Amino acid sequence: GIQVEQSPPDLILQEGANSTLRCNFSDSVNNLQWFHQNPWGQLINLFYIPSGTKQNGRLSATTVATERYSLLYISSSQTTDSGVYFCAVGADSNYQLIWGAGTKLIIKP
Amino acid sequence: DVKVTQSSRYLVKRTGEKVFLECVQDMDHENMFWYRQDPGLGLRLIYFSYDVKMKEKGDIPEGYSVSREKKERFSLILESASTNQTSMYLCASKSGSYEQYFGPGTRLTVT
Known about the structure:
The complex is a heterodimer of chains A (about 110) and B (about 110).
Chain A: E1 4-7, E2 10-14, E3 19-25, E4 31-37, E5 43-48, E6 52-56, E7 59-64, E8 69-74, E9 83-90, E10 98-99, E11 103-108
Parallel strand pairs in A: 2-11
Antiparallel strand pairs in A: 1-3, 3-8, 4-5, 4-9, 6-7, 7-8, 9-10, 9-11
Chain B: E1 4-6, E2 10-13, E3 19-25, E4 31-38, E5 42-51, E6 54-57, E7 64-70, E8 73-78, E9 87-94, E10 100-102, E11 106-110
Parallel strand pairs in B: 2-11
Antiparallel strand pairs in B: 1-3, 3-8, 4-5, 4-9, 5-6, 7-8, 9-10, 9-11
């Protein structure tokens, strides 16, 4: 099955810094999502991005499907950005997503 | 606005009790999912449903069953709760190959 690897596993930054999170996947996909899990456990949709580039405020994401990776950029980090960021991919229209292990981000004030 | 709701945020049950976790979505999605999340193990799929009354086992179905009698509602049932089922349970829904949306989660403790 498809393997998903996220890097780095942990990231500690000062408020205001920029960061890049990476997601590598081992096969072709037709679904790729980035999620942020907040300290209360809620998984919040950031991007649905099987290919191309999207931006939403301070966050943007790029997926290069032919090279099997996706990047999540966070600019001008705030303490509320802390949490775990997950990448999940799918290769079947109806069924499950395959999850990466996540990147734990801590933003210090 | 997209909405997936779960019946409880926190739940405490005793070993051997029958436990029902309810999930409701208002997006007319065909597909619904139940995951559990444990520290160091990530999200693991328990069961999913691609239509009313249809279900498929995920990666860890043992000790669980599900019910989908209406399109908007997907229930997870622990027939006889055990302490190793203490976990965070997350429900999700999606349509086709598009975005999957999650509910707020239920933290279940079995004592």
